[in-house]
Specification:
Blueprint lengths: L24 H13 L10 H13 L3 E5 L2 H11 L7 E5 L5 H8 L3 E5 L1 E2 L4 E2 L1 H6 L5 E7 L8 H11 L3 E4 L7 E2 L2 E2 L6 E5 L12 E5 L2 H10 L23 H33 L4 E4 L9 E3 L5 E5 L14 H10 L16 H4 L10 E2 L3 H7 L2 E4 L12 H17 L13
Parallel strand pairs: 2-3, 2-6, 3-15, 6-7, 7-10
Antiparallel strand pairs: 1-11, 4-5, 8-9, 8-13, 10-11, 12-14, 14-16
Helix pairs in contact: 1-8, 2-8, 3-4, 3-7, 8-12
The structure holds pyridoxal-5'-phosphate.
């Protein structure tokens, strides 16, 4: 019974946890309505896209929202809207999904990687400030995992240096800082609606702002450079990065469910953070007791733990690797991220950029980001799972699985593990 599942024993959890994405008849009805309307795409008055923009803007308390085809598309539009082009530097946290940086590179700019605050895994204000140069054109703050970055500090940097702050909210829809929604605090906020995200239509994104001029530029950049309103001339260079009507229709339904889902995830995350932090070797980020009162809502895209293999050591060995721990957890039936995380500067596209046809990156600081990537364990939607929606009577299996690994870890120490499983 107690043999680790990775070594051929019975998995502790045989029943699946809730999955993600979730849907019901409302999505089916919304899709059918669009199908029958025969208006499946384009930008026009009365579209699903326009209605979703109005509803999203109301939820975020911003005057302007533009739906786009993906979060990456949204980042490229945001960067171009604030004037980023070849030769410009953009400050990016060294720990984020790589698209935060590649959006800069694809415009000919140079991502400048800066370190994170290990307590929150979000951009360090002092590291960002230290990396500002004459070439800096913008700063991207990423609310990683749904934890808001320190937006007081980011806005202070913006005022002091006259730099626009772009919020990468791909993982943070519903998170709030000082009671303001992420995306509404900087100059531009960018959301992703890809399959794992807090609301999803498989793919999709949105770009939001308080600024009327930026809003007009954003709406035009995603629509071939047409002026908003649909005139058939093209005063600026633009892309087609529009979102289809089926996706907007689904997103409207998903947005209506978000509040209840966030509340459920907050309960699940609070339970797991408290229970698992009492297991030696696992520390939740942030610790429940260290929760910053300025974080008035967390997006709970993921619940992150730092794994310390030393605490899993028996005798003279090196301690369990985070990869072996995740493989063992996965085998016990607990959804956990399946790949090792890579700090952005160490991604092949940036680590080995000499022969590339794009401007390389600059790494100002990344030690904490590298350490976090080498030790973080992620649970929740980041892994494609609805685990955090579960109640404690189900989530207790996560705790039991970790305890089982803890008791038996010495059996894993000599096993080689691939970084994906
Ligand atoms: C932090 C972050 N930024 C940007 C993106 C890019 O979003 P998309 O996949 O919709 O292009 C993602 C999505 O995975 C992300 O997690």
């Amino acid at each position: 019974m107690n043999t680790l599942a990775l070594l051929g024993g019975q998995p502790l959890r045989a029943r699946p946890f809730q999955t993600w994405p979730q849907f019901d008849q409302a999505e089916l009805d919304a899709l059918a309505d669009v199908l029958h309307s025969r208006r499946w795409g384009g930008i026009y008055n009365g579209s699903q896209g326009e209605s979703f923009e109005t509803e999203l803007a109301a939820y975020l308390q911003v005057p302007h929202a533009s739906v786009v085809s993906s979060g990456t598309a949204g980042l490229m539009i945001a960067l171009r809207a604030v004037g980023v082009g070849p030769g410009d530097e953009v400050i990016v946290p060294a720990m984020t999904y790589v698209a935060t940086a590649t959006a800069v590179s694809l415009l000919g700019g140079t991502p400048v990687f800066v370190d994170i605050d290990p307590a929150t895994l979000t951009i360090s204000g002092s590291a960002a400030e230290a990396a500002i140069s004459e070439k800096t054109k913008a700063v991207i703050a990423v609310h990683l995992g749904g934890h808001p970055a320190d937006m007081d500090r980011m806005c202070a940097i913006s005022r002091r240096y006259g730099l626009p702050i772009i919020e990468d909210c791909a993982q943070s829809l519903g998170a709030a800082w000082n009671s303001c929604q992420t995306g509404s605090l900087g100059n531009i906020g960018v959301f992703s609606f890809a399959n794992t995200k807090n609301i999803t239509a498989g793919e999709g994104g949105a770009v939001v702002t308080h600024d009327d001029k930026l809003a007009a530029r954003i709406a035009s950049l995603r629509d071939h450079g047409r002026p908003p309103g649909g005139a058939n001339n093209h005063p600026q260079l633009g892309w087609n990065l529009r979102l289809g009507e089926f996706q907007s229709a689904i997103l409207r339904v998903q947005l209506a469910r978000l509040k209840d889902q966030l509340a459920a995830k907050a309960r699940g995350a609070a339970y797991l953070a408290a229970e698992l932090s009492s297991v030696p070797g696992l520390t939740s980020i942030p610790m429940p007791t260290d929760f910053d009162p300025r974080v008035t809502a967390h997006g709970w895209f993921s619940l992150a733990f730092t794994f310390n293999g030393e605490a899993f050591r028996r005798g003279n060995n090196d301690g369990l690797s985070v990869t072996a721990f995740r493989a063992a957890l996965h085998a016990e039936g607990i959804p956990v991220q399946r790949r090792d995380l890579i700090a952005c500067p160490d991604e092949p596209i940036y680590a080995d950029a000499n022969s590339r046809d794009y401007s390389s990156s600059r790494t100002a600081s990344a030690a904490q980001a590298r350490a976090a990537c080498a030790s973080v364990v992620l649970l929740g939607q980041a892994t494609g799972s609805g685990l955090l929606f579960e109640k404690p009577e189900e989530l207790v299996d996560v705790v039991r699985a970790v305890e089982k690994i803890h008791e038996n870890q010495h059996l894993l120490l000599d096993e080689p593990f691939a970084s994906t499983f």
